[in-house]
Amino acid sequence: MRLTDPDAPLLRQVCARLDDTGLTRLGVAVSGGGDSTALLHLLAACAPDHSVALEAATVDHGLRPGSANEAATVAATCAGLGITHQTLRWHGWDGSGNLQAEARAARYRLLAAWAGAQGLDAVALGHTRDDVAETFVMRLGRAAGVDGLATMADDFHRHGARFLRPALGLGRDALRGFLRRHGLGWADDPSNDDPRFDRVKARKALETLADLGIAPETLAEVADNLAETRATLRQITADTARTLARQQAGDVVIDRAALARIAPGIARRLLLAALGWVSGADYAPRREALAGLERAIAAGRAHTLHGCLIQPGDTDLRVSREYAAVKHLATPLTAPWDNRWQVTGPDPALTVAALGEGLRDCPDWRDTGLPRTTLMASPAVWDGPRLIAAPLAGLAQGHAATIHPSRGDFFTYALSH
């Protein structure tokens, strides 16, 4: 492919992401649509100059008869570019819930698992400026605040994998123009024209707004401005967290009186950060659910939300993992447990699961100073039904439990979320 002058700004935008990230192995998620197909070719054009090796994957949701053929076409395209390709198939939808939301969540899970298995540094996604504008309109209809309306992140982590959006500053038309100039085809997903879906409705709304002079790039600029505001609020929240919160055995403990004195918006952000760090959930709880938590805290009542147990004490507010959320979770000793604990010990064949009622076999647990509820939801080492160790409950037996590096500490999390 011979690049032309109109290609230069597209290449600068995409290649810049390779300059500032220090990547050596990059995955590319390619659906076969215009955006991701253009991103694939642009990355293939600039990756060699940046010493970056590319691999590609297509998620086949199996929801349309032509999806397998589209994945095969992407595989053929990758073969022509000398890029290894893998098709990831989703078989998880049972017909319930929001289809697009379930499919989106499945994509991230599959891509993160693929990135981990392949040893990739990150996965590039084909989101564009038009996606920013469509998301803005959708969230505006849900009365979203600053966080919801701010532009989507161009560098983030999910399910233990890093994701990049190198084309976020580019328009969809510019990417399709690139493909047309070079005679490169792409597949249009019929669901992109299905009026049942919110994103299609948002796309139609943008066509109407264009008559008022409100173009996708205008809304994307507004979203960028709000992203600056979001970053400022996150910094204030993180600074506040360092003055009135502390980590303890995977819990977040907050000075209750100090929390009541700070601005309600910052207090709310601090609570959301604690819930997110403890639970590992990708999304925040709904506003109504959070309001219920705030009422419970004001009344001094324990409350559960987002897989967390929130307990107001005389002086502190403790946010810990809810035992019910992890009681059936078990992983090998070699794998992270609850996506946040790394347990080490002499026998990798053992299993990590919640301590639960095994606490009664830990005679020194009261000496730890930790609440019973915290310890029941903590990681323990099991050999079938037999408790081997409970590192946080005073029964180490040569084992240790630490927060996995991918989760980081609470204060760093508060700054980035």
TrEMBL record:
Keyword field: ATP-binding, Cytoplasm, Ligase, Nucleotide-binding, tRNA processing
Please write the reaction equations for the catalytic activity of this protein: cytidine(34) in tRNA(Ile2) + L-lysine + ATP = lysidine(34) in tRNA(Ile2) + AMP + diphosphate + H(+)
Major location, coarse class? Answer: cytoplasm
State the top-level EC class.
ligase
Question: Which gene specifies this protein's sequence?
Answer: tilS
* Subcellular location field: Cytoplasm
Q: Where is the tRNA(Ile)-lysidine/2-thiocytidine synthase N-terminal domain?
A: 27-204
Q: MF terms per GO, please?
A: ATP binding; tRNA(Ile)-lysidine synthase activity
For this chain's UniProt record, which GO biological process terms are given? tRNA modification
Matching CDD domains, A to Z? TilS_N (cd01992)
Q: Does the keyword RNA-binding apply?
A: no
Keyword ATP-binding part of the UniProt annotation: yes
Give a short account of what the protein does: Ligates lysine onto the cytidine present at position 34 of the AUA codon-specific tRNA(Ile) that contains the anticodon CAU, in an ATP-dependent manner. Cytidine is converted to lysidine, thus changing the amino acid specificity of the tRNA from methionine to isoleucine.
Any idea what this protein is called?
tRNA(Ile)-lysidine synthase
Q: What is known of its domains?
A: The N-terminal region contains the highly conserved SGGXDS motif, predicted to be a P-loop motif involved in ATP binding.
Q: Identify the species of origin.
A: Maritimibacter fusiformis
> Which SUPFAM superfamilies would you find in this protein's record?
Adenine nucleotide alpha hydrolases-like (SSF52402)
GO CC terms, sorted: cytoplasm
Give the protein family. Belongs to the tRNA(Ile)-lysidine synthase family.
Protein origin, superkingdom: Bacteria
